[in-house]
Write the structure tokens for this entry.
Amino acid sequence: MRIPYTGPLPPPIILPRNANTASGAISALTRFLSAPPSPRLQASSSSNGRTVLLTGAGISVASGLADYRGTAGTYTLNKTYRPIYYNEFVSNHEARKRYWARSFLGWTGLHKARPNAAHRAVRKLGEQGFIGEVITQNVDSFHPLAHPELPTLELHGYLRSLACIHCGNHLPRKEFQQSLSRLNPTWAAFLADMLETGALDSEHPDERRAKGLKSNPDGDVDVPDAPYTTFRYPACPVCLANPPILADGSQSSVRLDADGAWSPQSTAGVLKPAVVMFGESIATNVKLAAERAIDQASSILVVGSSLATYSAWRLVKRAKERNMPIGILNLGGVRGEESFYAETPADNDGSLGVRCSQSVDKILPSVVQNLETLAAAPAKVDIPATQENYA
């Protein structure tokens, strides 16, 4: 995954103009999702006539998780934040210690969090036939939890398991967390104390900072001046039992210290989170699956993403090249949004494109309610545009 775009984002382009209010945004999104395929859409024999959903961290904020570029996002409040990069992780034992110590502290909160009203609204939109597939940049697993029957492509992987960089074995994160506790009893006691005092009850950066912590997305808790070098982590159990042959043809070895932690004398057995780190390539089959999802849809709706990562931005660019109607529901600016709507007609009522800057968890459930009302109506009715209808 490429380094994310860090330049200033443009102010949101509100389309249609009445989408600057909650009721206007709900009406416009209702029209967008219920509209027939655009006549400008490139012909495709595989088109399913449905919308593909592309989601980002903004959809999970209401679940209590930190985001990146929102008003309380990490990049907004912590200008010095730098995520770990793939080459650093795979080549540096000390960097892995630091990563796993911070992840060990943050995993409990992430594991306890649950999908919110927006995820449940996505499930409803799938059941109603408006959404055909979800592509998510998020690694929290909320989409497959909230709507297992609606296909979800996890573009950047997931935190629910680990993958060995040498043999490819996957290990459940819950099991790995237990191993980290056993290998690091002092850290485990520190975590238990923070949980008991409520220090990790919120991922809001200001609240964490008041308690002496720095909170970052994806279960990353930084404790300033913590002795990260003392942290230890386990080896891949498959490599430990059967050390693999390395790429150069040599036999690897996996060694443990006296307490059973991975030893830097090893040449294999390194586990990493099953996510795509910055500087790491997205698997070809995942790239192709994302492109197929775009090509098979008749429109795309971006929810809770500023499209700062190239892997997401290029998918919307692909949709634009196919003349697909584009909808964006995201608080704040979005990378390249001016080009996405350059050809949208001035009299568009939302059917050919929507851009609104509203809270995802407040808007999507009301859109579902609107669509249910329209489906139950005996005859065509005007889509209501007053806030009272969504109370």
Notes: The longest strand covers residues 157-164.
